[in-house]
Amino acid sequence: MRRCITLVNKIKDAVNFILKSDGKRVKIIVALGLVAIILIAFSSLFQSNDNSKNTKGEEVSFDYSQYSEQTEKKLTDIVSSIDGVGECEVMITFEYSNENIYATDSENKNDENYQSNKDEYVLYDSQNGEKALLIKEKYPTVQGVSVVCSGGDNVEVREAVINTVTSLFNISANRVSVSKIKSKG
Q: Residue 62 and residue 37: Cα distance in Å, rounded?
């Protein structure tokens, strides 16, 4: 804060000095120079804020449990909106957590008696140093779904739930289990 006050005082002193001098052209040029310096100072303040947001965005990593919970919640909302389902609980199992595919540079050397293969990740400069170039991020694939609901004993409800789940996750019907929820009481 003191630096800002000192800077403002220096600017005021410079402006007062310029105003006391006689040359109008000099005054205009110096005034425009001061305005340019002030604009550059403000723009650098705003740039640093934007860069910190980008850095935070790059550092965000995949959270398996959060992805799993969100997917289960969305499926629970969809399934419970089917007529006759009633109260509903859902559990989803995934084949793997997630997979990142990075760009690689391959080099193959073949001599008469020697063969070598060399793969290296393609790197780029980021604000936190060099990073591997991410080509594709694969989210977990659904392996199976279990739905327990009030209407789980009704054949029509069971079929509607199975059709919904198999359509959403592109899995076969034998990977979906629908059961009646245990009555509380």
A: 42
- For the record, the structure tokens of 66 come out as 């959060």
3-state secondary structure of 88: strand
DSSP strand pairing (176-180 vs 142-149): parallel
Looking at the chain, the whole-number percentage of residues with pLDDT higher than 90 is 35
Candidates 168, 169, 162; CA nearest to 143 is 169
- How do residues 90-125 score in pLDDT, each as one tens digit? 999 988 777 778 888 777 778 778 787 777 877 777
Residue for token pair 């040029």: 29
Cβ-based neighbour number of residue 135 at 10 Å = 11
Q: Judge whether 98 and 117 are in contact, CB under 8 Å.
A: no
Angle at Cα 154 formed by Cα 152 and Cα 156, nearest 5°? 110
Q: What is the pLDDT of residue 47?
A: 53
pTM (predicted TM-score): 0.54
Residue 44: count other Cβ atoms within 10 Å of its Cβ.
Answer: 9
- As a residue count, the chain comes to 185
Q: Which residue has the tokens 């410079």?
A: 14
Confidence category of residue 59, pLDDT binned at 50, 70, 90: very low
Alpha helices by DSSP H, the chain: 2-20, 24-59, 64-80, 155-169
Report DSSP state, residue 106.
E
Q: DSSP letter for 116, please.
A: E
